[in-house]
Amino acid sequence: MARRGLTHLDSRRRPAMVDVGAKEVTHRIAVAEARVRLPAGVARALRAAGHRTSKGPVFETAIVAGVQAAKRTHELIPFCHPLGLENCQLHIEHRRAQEIVVRCEVSVHHRTGVEMEALTGAAVAALTIYDMCKALSHDIEIGSVRLLEKSGGQRRFTRAATGHRR
Question: How far, in Å, CA of 135 to CA of 55, rounded?
């Protein structure tokens, strides 16, 4: 089961879902983040308004959207297995003057990992922040959607420090 290379191809090189039936059930955890860069005026206005817009509380709404997205990842990404997530936590911080960091941590006891669920949760939360702030400016950037760490499967992954505080 530890073959390298593309895993979502069958013996005839056609797209296929990976058979995880023979894998061991383990506690799988994944952490992902997305970064939202705001124009200076938008960042000031958002902070001054307590991170609320006319659409409502920005961070709280993004957290709900991120959890919903993580739970429905298998409906969005064709070969993801449906998983009954045991935990999904989103944390959103307005860290630097113009940067919001969204962090999504997901866990499950299963035969397959939850990297895609964590990435999807972080990305959709970031998109929700964009949606709720776009009336202030369309010059908002979403970037650096990335896996920070994963554990519980055959391979553990921890992103090397890149100057970003976690």
Answer: 10
Give 165 or 137, the one with higher predicted confidence: 137
d(CA 79, CA 66) in angstroms, rounded, equals: 20
Count of helices and strands (H, E) across the chain: 4, 7
pLDDT band at 154 (very low <50, low <70, confident <90, very high): confident
The rounded distance, in Å, linking the Cα atoms of 90 and 101 is 10
CATH topology of domain 26-155: Alpha-Beta Plaits (3.30.70)
CA count, 13 A, side-chain hemisphere, 28: 21
pTM, full prediction: 0.87
> Which two three-digit tokens encode residue 85?
């997530």
**Amino acid identity, position 65:** A
Q: Which residues are catalytic?
A: 131
Burial 98-117 (b: 16+ CB within 10 A, else e): bbbbbbbbbbbebbbbbbbb
3-state DSSP assignment of residue 89: strand
Q: Rg of the chain over CA atoms, in angstroms?
A: 18
